[in-house]
Amino acid sequence: MASSTRRGSRLAVIGKSLVVGLALAWAGSATADTDVPPPDEGMGWERFSVLYSPEVELSDTSLGPALQSALRGNGVQNFGLESSMQTGWLARYHAQLDYTYGYGFSGVRFEPLGFGWAFPIVRNREMRLEIEPLFSAADFLFLFSKDAANNANVTFLLSTGVEVQLNLTVGPFYVYASPLGLELRYLEVTTGSLGAITTGMDPFFRFRLGVGIQY
């Protein structure tokens, strides 16, 4: 009788140990599932690139007084730097700073609010190919312009843009091109004696080409 009792106690202890072990294993697997690393782990979270971004003017119906003095047919050429950061499984944040030559004038362009969603076509630890729709909420362009009386002034333009970008990453190297892009300028403010505030909707076709590193 005593041996049966001891055997029963041992079985109970073994049973409890199995239950505890299974519970711990399940908890560990659940934790592992919630801690799955993002797809970019092992290839870097951030990207830094140099870029060239021309724009082709599709309409000039709402250009203000300062820019009306520029030669017709002048587009906008941007040469700059871009930094982007992964903020989720697909989401990326973009910021861009450019030297700009636009409408026949030099200036500076700043895009602090760019948001993209990079959908993978091919993704592994050696390379990545993505298609990324991008939205830039506010693009700020400052041009050092001249008015009709040849007086120096500053023209500020505000715009919003959308584009579709193709990204290729091989190891730490990163290249991209966005053949489809649209920029809409809707506010122009010019300083000086002939300064003015002009609103409208000036559309531009925009293309971007860049090369950089991922780290």
Please, could you describe this protein's structure?
- This protein is of the alpha+beta class.
- The chain has 2 domains: 1-36; 46-214, Porin.
- The chain is built from 2 helices and 10 strands; from the N terminus they run αβαβββββββββ.
- Strands 1, 2, 3, 4, 5, 6, 7, 8, 9 and 10 form a 10-stranded antiparallel beta sheet that branches.
- It is elongated, with a radius of gyration of 28 Å.
- The chain starts with a helix and ends with a strand.
In short:
The protein has helices spanning 2-34, 65-68, and strands at 46-57, 76-86, 91-102, 105-117, 119-123, 127-146, 152-170, 173-190, 196-206, 208-214. It is an alpha+beta fold.
Specify the CATH architecture of the largest domain.
Beta Barrel
Spatial shape: elongated
Distance between the termini: 70 Å
User: What's the total helix number?
Assistant: 2
Spatial extent as radius of gyration:
28 Å
Count of DSSP strands: 10
**CATH class call of the largest domain:** Mainly Beta
Question: Which residues form runs of ≥5 with pLDDT under 50?
Answer: 2-8, 17-37
How do the helices and strands line up, and which of them pair or pack?
Layout (H helix, E strand, L loop, with lengths): L1 H33 L11 E12 L7 H4 L7 E11 L4 E12 L2 E13 L1 E5 L3 E20 L5 E19 L2 E18 L5 E11 L1 E7 L1
Antiparallel strand pairs: 1-2, 1-9, 1-10, 2-3, 3-4, 4-6, 5-6, 6-7, 7-8, 8-9, 8-10
